[in-house]
């Protein structure tokens, strides 16, 4: 294989995994469609009323349309990217998101996340860890998540103006508990 061809293949495959299928969202509902997307990309989901994380795409629960509502997303080492974030639009019950070692998460993703009106209402906890493409701009975009109660940030080398960024964020979200591990 020529140099870089493997990386190009994985980039193409990730773009395919993250392509939004609006017809599928209409057919099965936003929570089921988002579950399928997240699991295809290697993330986990947890539904309301369940302590168990769903990780097997083929084991997704069946039942009446809209029965299973996503409450938490753990995207550790997943390949989710901006292109697929339209799947988050219809989610009304997500309270907790963890983005850990997500190489495709960048500032535009955090901005899109914070502009999703349902997440502005429901999201309470957000953890962003070892996402090397996140900068101060992305963290500042989180100010629109007005119900966010807890934000954990760790190992984000793209954040350059730590004090200024966190001061602005804390002013915008005075009830936010901000935990930092950014040495």
TrEMBL record:
It comes from the Eukaryota. SUPFAM superfamilies: RNI-like (SSF52047). This is ATP5S synthase. It comes from Nicator chloris.
């Amino acid at each position: 294989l020529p140099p870089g061809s493997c990386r190009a293949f994985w980039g193409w495959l990730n773009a395919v995994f993250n392509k939004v299928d609006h017809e599928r969202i209409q057919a099965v509902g936003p929570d089921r469609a988002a579950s399928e997307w997240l699991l295809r990309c290697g993330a986990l989901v947890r539904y309301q009323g369940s302590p168990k994380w769903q990780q097997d795409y083929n084991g997704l629960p069946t039942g009446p349309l809209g029965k299973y509502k996503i409450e938490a997303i753990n995207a550790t080492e997943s390949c989710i990217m901006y292109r697929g974030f339209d799947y988050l639009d219809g989610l009304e019950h997500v309270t907790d998101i963890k983005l850990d070692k997500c190489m495709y998460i960048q500032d535009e993703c955090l901005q899109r996340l914070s502009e999703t009106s349902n997440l502005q209402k429901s999201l309470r906890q957000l953890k962003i860890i070892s996402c090397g493409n996140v900068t101060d701009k992305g963290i500042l975009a989180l100010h629109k998540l007005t119900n966010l109660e807890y934000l954990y940030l760790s190992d984000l080398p793209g954040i350059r103006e730590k004090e200024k960024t966190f001061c602005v964020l804390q002013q915008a979200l005075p009830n936010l508990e901000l935990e930092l591990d950014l040495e």
